[in-house]
Amino acid sequence: MIARDLLGREFDFPQPPRRVVSLVPSLTETLFELGAGEQVVGITDFCIFPRGMDRTRVGGTKTPSVARIRQLAPDIVYVNLEENLKRHADEIAAFAPVFSTEPKSVDDVAALISLLGSIHRSEKRATELVALLAANRQPLAAFTFVVPIWKKPWMWCGGDTYVSNLVVSIGGRNLLGDRTRYPIIEAQEVTALRPDVIFLPDEPYLFTEADADAMREMSGARIIGPFPGHLFTWHGARTIEGLRFLQRSFAMPR
Could you tell me whether strands 172-174 and 197-201 are parallel, antiparallel, or unpaired per DSSP bridges? Predict the structure, then answer.
């Protein structure tokens, strides 16, 4: 089959890849969920799902060992434009195909799962995962929200981020939706917008219960968190868990 990555590059997969290196923790989990885990030979130090993987670790998402990746002789290397650095991708491309991804919405995730399913000849399982995505996108009563991702300085998820779209997909309205990427804005300025909900993931910044108490006192908003950040920041099969987390959070009394 012919597949195009996010950069529009065409890849021919006459047969499923046999030696895969994933530099994207969320894609590593997704490949295993698709039943393609046996073909994964290299992963990052941050690939923690599924638990207990016994694969060669090639370093961090932004600090991979290109030499170690070369030794694994991959026939495909998956990267993400935000998580991984272009210079590493360019170095790897000298000896292996590099497939770039960067979903920014739940719809993008569904398309990516379907694409990976086709590449790895796991179409049936991909269809099942996409159906689970849809089943967990039941709209909730409208609410406004903000999501900080860093504290020193305060940084927030703008409207063009995957995190924002995840919450918007079930009925939220990001009060910083007109901002792009991760704007730096003081907490007092954001809480003055009177969000209904402030989400506090524990990554990339490790927000604590003390942060939750301070934000609650400052804003009067409902604080959800701290909670495992991968539920908001990982895309792919983990998106299903993120949507389930949102549904559970709003089903619980304040």
Answer: unpaired
**What pLDDT, in 10s, does the model give residues 20-56?**
999 999 999 999 999 999 999 999 999 999 999 999 9
143-251 shares the fold of 2-104: yes
Task: Classify residue 99 by burial, with Cβ atoms within 10 Å: 0-12, 13-18, 19+.
Answer: buried
Cβ–Cβ under 8 Å, residues 112 and 103: yes
The fold of 2-104 is: Rossmann fold (3.40.50)
Tell me the pTM: 0.94
- Rounded distance, CA 223 to CA 236, Å? 26
Q: Which of the following CATH numbers is that of domain 143-251: 3.40.50.1980, 3.30.1340.30, 2.60.40.1820, 3.30.200.20?
A: 3.40.50.1980
Cα→Cα distances 228→59, 64, 201, 203, Å = 22, 24, 6, 7
For the chain, the first-to-last Cα distance in angstroms comes to: 50
Distance of alpha carbon 178 from alpha carbon 220, whole angstroms: 23
Q: What is the pLDDT of residues 171-192, one digit of tens each?
A: 999 999 999 999 999 999 999 9
**Every domain of the chain and the residues it spans:** 2-104, 143-251
Angle in degrees, CA 69, 67, 52, rounded to 5: 40
